[in-house]
Every structure is written in C-alpha cells, then in structure tokens.
Amino acid sequence: MRMGVIGSGMVGQRLAADLARLGHEVVVGTRDPGKLEGFVAEHPGVRAATNAGAAAFGEMILLATRWEGTREALDLAGEENLNGKTLVDITNPLDFSGGRPALALGWNTSAGEQVQGWIPGARVVKALNIVTADAMLNPRTFVGGEPDMFIAGNDAAAKGEVTRLLEGVGWGVVDLGDITMSRYIEPLALIWITHAANSGWTKRDHAFKLLNR
Ligand SMILES: NC(=O)c1ccc[n+]([C@@H]2O[C@H](COP(=O)([O-])OP(=O)(O)OC[C@H]3O[C@@H](n4cnc5c(N)ncnc54)[C@H](OP(=O)(O)O)[C@@H]3O)[C@@H](O)[C@H]2O)c1
Questions:
Q1: pLDDT tens digits, residue range 164-188?
Q2: Is residue 205, in this structure, part of any structural domain at all?
Q3: Which atom of ligand 1 is nearest to the CA of 28?
Q4: Is the pTM of the predicted complex or chain greater than 0.90?
Q5: Which domain, by its residues, includes 130?
Q6: Number of domains in the chain
Q7: Does ligand 1 lie within 6 Å of residue 91's CB atom?
Q8: Does residue 209 fall inside a structural domain?
Q9: Is 211 inside a domain boundary?
Q10: Which of 197, 211, 210 minimizes the C-alpha distance to 149?
Q11: Pocket test for ligand 1, best of 40, 63, 65, 195 (most atoms within 8 A of CB)
C-alpha cells in the first residue's frame, strides 16, 4: 500500500522504516526534505517529500507531528490531498510547560476530534498513540501475550483498514467507537509516560491489554 507519513521525528522515521520493512511504499512528509537524506539512503522503500507530497502520495496517511505543530503540518499537507483518505492520528496533545508532560486539552475535546474538525473530509482514526515509537508496528516483542491497541473514529471502513494493518503486525484491536472516544484514549498515553518517567525513563517497554474473565 502507498503510505504517507506526516512528521519526521522519532515516530515518523520509525513508522516509515517499519512500514517499508512490511512491504509498503512510504513517503515521509517534512518541512525540510533535505534533512532526511541520510535516513532515506539507509531505508530503501522510503522517500522524503514535502507534507503535501506525502499526503498526495499516500493511500493511507499516518500523522506523527508534535501537537503544537499539527495544525500547521496539516495545512501544509493540504486538505485536497487528505480528503477521503484514512488518516491515522498518532498525536498526543501534550503540554510540556510544567516540566512533566500533561494533557493540553481533554474532557470535552481531544486531538483526534480537532484533527477531524480541521480536515472534515478525511477519515480520521485515532490509534498507536499509547506506545513508544519502536513498538507501534512491533507489538509481538511484548512478553505476556498479545497487547491491545485502542482505536476510535467515525468511519467504519477506515477503522477496518487500520484494524487490518494493526492485527497484521500482532495487535489485538479494541474499537471504542466514534472519534470523541479519543478523549479517553489520549489520557492513556499519560499513564504510559508517567510510568516511564517514574522509573527515570528506564521503563519504556510497556503496553496495555484488556483482560476478560
Ligand atoms: N515519541 C513517541 O514514542 C511517541 C509515542 C506515542 C505518540 N507520540 C506522539 O506522536 C507525535 C510525534 O512524536 P515525535 O516524538 O516524533 O515528535 P517530534 O519529533 O517532536 O515532532 C515530530 C514532527 O512534528 C513536526 N512539527 C513540529 N512542529 C511543527 C510545526 N510548527 N509545523 C509543522 N510541523 C511541525 C516536525 O516535522 P518536520 O520538522 O519534519 O516538518 C517534527 O519532525 C507527537 O504528537 C507525540 O506526542 C509519540
């Protein structure tokens, strides 16, 4: 599948590398494609482009931008390049101003809802925001069984596409409902971060699982 990754930080690069390893064609979008020369040279199957170039290329779009820059990154990607496409929102709306990260918004909205509101024609699916980058497409590396990934979105077909991608690499997928459920998925990232921070960042390899009885 043709994948467009918007954002070229730790998450964007890791997703691009893993998607290429899985056999997808990948274009990473960035404000400065030149800075990815070395990364692209090391990862056959990955190309760098502008955000608009990545968005136009992708059949599926993965959004991996720092929260404060997300609106600008999507503006650069162009609504016309995103309309009708499945857009996986991996962002966490984090506020670092207090030292330790906290949620910049919540209760009555979420990053997922804001992204859906900014690009109403995209089929936004919240997913992958509750684990570290290198685990996103490598969940079989966890011990203790198959971990779960919570997803939310308004479009059933888009959630189906994301579910196939995630189940294919080893996630159990729990669909919580429409995009407003991002309000409950995004705080889980703070559990992940807090547990890591409490260990002095020595613990980075945890994920969530729903247990039934
Ligand atoms: N790090 C993790 O393990 C992890 C795990 C789960 C979720 N997340 C979430 O995933 C997202 C990406 O994380 P990250 O660690 O890769 O973030 P990051 O390195 O801080 O930023 C990712 C990209 O955001 C883009 N960006 C930043 N400011 C921008 C602006 N003003 N306009 C346009 N683009 C801008 C930049 O793209 P260019 O400079 O290339 O244009 C940058 O490479 C975040 O929302 C984070 O909370 C991260």
A1: 999 999 999 999 999 999 999 999 9
A2: no
A3: 40
A4: yes
A5: 2-198
A6: 1
A7: yes
A8: no
A9: no
A10: 210
A11: 65
